[in-house]
């Protein structure tokens, strides 16, 4: 199947070639790689995140960003006013004192509450326009460690090199301009210092990548169209890992049709350990038709599952900040990458299989016997499903 042609025609965004991706599993791998890239930056650091809370890692990022600013590196930071609301004020003050440009995006205003509902959920770090990171990680103690227990979340993040970095840079710049700034001349990827940069040796190389960014929409967004396209073109397998599962009826129908035409469909979501219990309740009323159609549903039980990925036919990988829920598809700013690589897909599938060992399968007969309270909560959740 011509996956590349279908995705380019449907989304309207071309793939770039010559990219490299390193998969980073859990904070144990994610944070050292990000901090190392920040330490090595010489021109500019752009950092956009939804979650920035507290803990040792929050302080380490703030201090290092401040240090780089003092060294003369241009450091720009965008924090979501809702997601980073609990960030210690002293960390912001430290960065600003050191010369970091810190912007808070979309402050919550009572008289414009309808605008406050749309957040920027993107997580992007770009160093010198050459190395970028994206995925699901937030800067908080919950993400530290190696998902060994409920206090250490399960996460996947990605280190990117190549032309796709420009697509991630555009996601940062879109929000930067929204905060009132103008574009400056000489974007960092245009720097030519004569240095020959070789891709990270741990990365998977020569990957075609399509970068898709999306903002709030009424009925459709690029992420919504992307997800529908991925599910619709799958021939053999679909593996979805998501922190929050709340698709609309049309998406549920597509997943059921895929299973009914012989596609092996697996969906992994958080189980006992989840930071937003309402998310599981809201998604629960979609389980019955999925199970009846033969979709395999899994509750990850080891810790909070915050990773986000979709792998189609062991070849197409969709990775980034968006969950498989209404909010990511229609309400928030997100950025995802679609990568065409059997090697990358194999690695993500291996991670999926490893995570399955900590999962409980949701069985149709057991789900039909769930409690009246559970059913009642699912009915109540319908009134605010669009917020989840």
From TrEMBL:
Residues 116-143, 301-328 form the PLD phosphodiesterase domain. SUPFAM superfamilies: Phospholipase D/nuclease (SSF56024). It comes from the Bacteria. One of its GO terms (molecular function) is phosphatidyltransferase activity. CDD domains: PLDc_CLS_1 (cd09110), PLDc_ybhO_like_2 (cd09159). Pfam families: PLDc_2. GO terms for biological process: cardiolipin biosynthetic process. This is Cardiolipin synthase. It comes from Fodinibius roseus.
């Amino acid at each position: 199947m011509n996956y590349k042609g279908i995705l380019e025609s449907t989304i309207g965004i071309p793939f770039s070639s010559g990219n490299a991706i390193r998969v980073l599993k859990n904070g144990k791998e994610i944070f050292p790689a990000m901090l190392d890239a920040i330490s090595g930056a010489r021109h500019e650091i752009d950092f956009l995140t939804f979650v920035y809370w507290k803990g040792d890692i929050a302080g380490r990022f703030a201090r290092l960003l401040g240090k780089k600013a003092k060294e003369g590196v241009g450091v720009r930071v965008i924090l979501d006013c809702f997601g980073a609301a609990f960030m210690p004020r002293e960390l912001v003050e430290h960065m600003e004192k050191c010369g970091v440009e810190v912007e808070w995006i979309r402050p919550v205003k009572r008289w414009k509450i309808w605008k406050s509902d749309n957040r920027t959920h993107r997580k992007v770090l770009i160093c010198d326009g050459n190395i970028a990171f994206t995925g699901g990680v937030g800067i908080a103690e919950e993400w530290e460690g190696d998902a060994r227990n409920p206090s250490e979340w399960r996460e996947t993040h990605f280190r990117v090199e190549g032309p796709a970095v420009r697509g991630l840079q555009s996601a940062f710049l879109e929000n930067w301009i929204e905060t009132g700034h103008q574009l400056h001349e000489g974007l960092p990827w245009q720097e030519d210092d004569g240095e020959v940069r070789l891709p990270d040796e741990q990365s998977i190389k020569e990957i075609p990548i399509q970068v898709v960014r999306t903002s709030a929409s009424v009925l459709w967004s690029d992420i919504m169209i992307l997800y529908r396209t991925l599910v619709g073109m799958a021939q053999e397998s679909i593996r979805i890992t998501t922190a929050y599962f709340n698709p609309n009826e049309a998406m549920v129908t597509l997943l059921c049709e895929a299973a009914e035409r012989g596609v092996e469909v697996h969906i992994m979501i958080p189980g006992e350990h989840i930071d937003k219990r309402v998310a599981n309740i809201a998604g629960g009323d979609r389980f019955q038709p999925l199970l009846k159609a033969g979709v395999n549903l899994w509750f990850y039980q080891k810790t909070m599952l915050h990773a986000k990925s979709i792998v189609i036919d062991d070849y197409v990988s969709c990775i980034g900040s968006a969950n498989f829920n209404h909010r990511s598809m229609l309400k928030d700013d997100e950025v995802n990458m679609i990568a065409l690589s059997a090697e990358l897909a194999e690695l993500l599938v291996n991670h999926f299989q490893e995570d399955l060992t900590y999962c409980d399968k949701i069985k149709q007969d057991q789900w039909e016997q769930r409690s009246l309270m559970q059913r009642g909560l699912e009915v109540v959740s319908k009134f605010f499903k669009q917020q989840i």
